[in-house]
Design a protein that fits this description.
Radius of gyration: 31 Å
Oligomer: single chain
Number of domains: 4
Strand order of the largest sheet: 10-9-13-12-11-14-15
Order of helices and strands: HEEEEEEEEHHHHHHHHHHEEEHEHEHEEH
Number of strands: 15
Helix content: 40-55%
Length: 495
């Protein structure tokens, strides 16, 4: 008898487990018929497609499968490119009904408490935003008004009105925070709670002060932010990867909260990745770890700011080239070869490194070793005669160079032609009257490897070198090059 009980109990467990390993979501959109919907999901700032839902003549369809969908915030997209959102987490068998007259307001959920809570939160948020919007507009109006001719009474009235508006807006914010905290308290393990914690703003204490009220640590708030910014983010919760909030949190931290220099950013990269490894407990195979590393890798591969390629090089040297990545990537030789090639192109021409030397042929029919030419500042301008942008910028720099007497001030320019047509090249120099400035050179046999050494994948490209031939700036337009040159030479009073 005992054996039968054990057998029946095992079958029940087995049945429950198999029942849990599938998804079945019924969707009805009234007002649509004989068409299809797209089930997508957020993946950071991207929107990815998970499945297609075919609707019948009554607007009903089902998305289902024998495996669970990856948890996240999903979108149901109509043919008119309108959408509503649902949460897919532990509840993966439920029904959603809505109407094309208002997809969001008409949503009804059956069989998913997670989505009941999520939709109620969305409605509350929309309600609070509706109340807040006119107050924000009034506040903007008060700040935009020219108060030059205001009387003392008008200024007092304006100040009081601003104070009242700010207080009302803060009250609305506190209501939102209280509502979110209630969700977190009641549903602490839910995806929505994890999302809300990630979105929450850090409360930073005031500066420490002495007995007389003087600030004793001017960097206190900045250091506190660095230490505690991710305190409320569950860095082991890979469900956050299929939401827009985690990537947004990362970007806000590295783009807006930190001092925007590589020496400030690089330690924070290490701090964050170490923290993820500690929380996720999956080493380099963890999804949160690798997705965060990959996002930062892509972010700084083509950086927005000059000098930030140093961060990309650091990531390559300290993580990718040291095999601190998932094993499947280590074994992907094609991928590793590709990123190593990009690394080689960027590592040789970073800000602060000595510019690779080049032996080039000049239009004076002599060979010139670039780094042997002494100058206070050296400008390298890579260009192609058939490049429309080059035809504009090369003469523009030539004009600035000559009008500002830069050669007399110790500035030398190498105009480096990237192709091999010597006759065409010399004709271009003559036509644009460029002989009076700089050294005109090219690589006739294309054997200096300058494209890799200087990352020349398009033209024009400019580099600025100091007297020791170290790179101080690159990829700048002519007028900005002139500003940098004047700064390096210590010339402040310029037109």
């Amino acid at each position: 008898m005992k054996k039968y009980i054990i057998l029946i109990f095992s079958l029940i467990i087995s049945f429950n487990l198999s029942a849990q390993k599938k998804h079945k979501i019924d969707i009805q959109v009234k007002g649509l018929q004989d068409t299809s919907l797209i089930l997508g999901y957020h993946y950071g700032s991207k929107k990815m497609i998970a499945d297609t839902v075919f609707l019948d003549s009554k607007g009903r369809g089902t998305v289902q499968g024998d495996s669970l969908l990856n948890p996240g915030i999903y979108l149901v997209l109509t043919p008119e490119m309108k959408f509503f959102e649902i949460i897919i987490d532990s509840d993966q068998e439920f029904k959603v009904t809505t109407d094309t007259t208002d997809l969001f307001s008409n949503i009804k959920i059956e069989g998913s408490e997670e989505n009941d809570v999520f939709h109620a939160y969305q409605e509350k948020n929309a309600e609070l935003n509706k109340t807040r919007k006119p107050l924000i507009e009034k506040l903007r109006h008060y700040y935009s008004v020219d108060t030059t001719d205001f009387s003392k009474k008008q200024l007092t009235t304006r100040r009081d009105s601003i104070s009242i508006l700010r207080e009302e807006i803060e009250n609305i914010n506190q209501k939102r925070i209280a509502y979110e905290q209630n969700i977190i308290k009641k549903h602490p393990q839910s995806l929505l709670a994890s999302v809300l914690n990630t979105m929450s703003e850090l409360e930073i204490p005031d500066y420490p002060r002495d007995e007389e009220g003087n600030i004793t640590d001017s960097l206190f708030k900045y250091n506190y932010l660095r230490k505690h910014y991710f305190d409320k983010v569950d860095l082991s919760d890979n469900r956050l990867l299929r939401t827009p909030v985690y990537e947004m949190k990362i970007d806000q931290y590295f783009d807006r909260e930190l001092i925007q220099i590589p020496d400030s950013i690089i330690p924070e990269v290490n701090r964050l990745l170490d923290r993820i490894i500690m929380q996720e407990k999956q080493g380099y195979e963890g999804k949160m770890y690798y997705n965060t590393l990959h996002h930062l890798f892509m972010k700084y591969q083509n950086p927005k700011y000059m000098g930030f390629d140093n961060i990309f090089v650091y990531l390559m040297e300290q993580y990718y080239l040291k095999d601190k990545i998932p094993e499947r990537l280590i074994n992907d030789t094609a991928y590793i070869t590709q990123i190593e090639d990009r690394y080689k192109k960027m590592s040789k021409n970073r800000i602060g490194v000595t510019a690779p030397d080049l032996l080039l042929y000049s239009n004076k029919d002599t060979w010139v070793k670039m780094n042997s030419v002494e100058a206070e500042i050296t400008i390298l301008y890579f260009y192609d005669i058939d490049c429309g942008h080059c035809k504009k910028l090369i003469p523009e720099w030539h004009t600035l160079y000559t009008e500002n007497n830069l050669r007399e001030k110790g500035v030398e320019t190498f105009y480096i032609y990237t192709q091999t047509d010597m006759d065409k090249w010399k004709e271009f120099i003559k036509e644009k009257n460029l002989n009076s400035s700089g050294i005109h050179v090219f690589d006739p046999y294309q054997n200096t490897n300058f494209r890799t050494l200087y990352d020349i994948y398009s033209t024009p490209v400019a580099y600025i070198l100091d007297k020791n031939k170290k790179i101080v700036a690159k990829r700048l337009p002519p007028e900005t090059i002139l500003d940098v040159v004047h700064h390096e030479l210590g010339i402040e009073d310029k037109e």
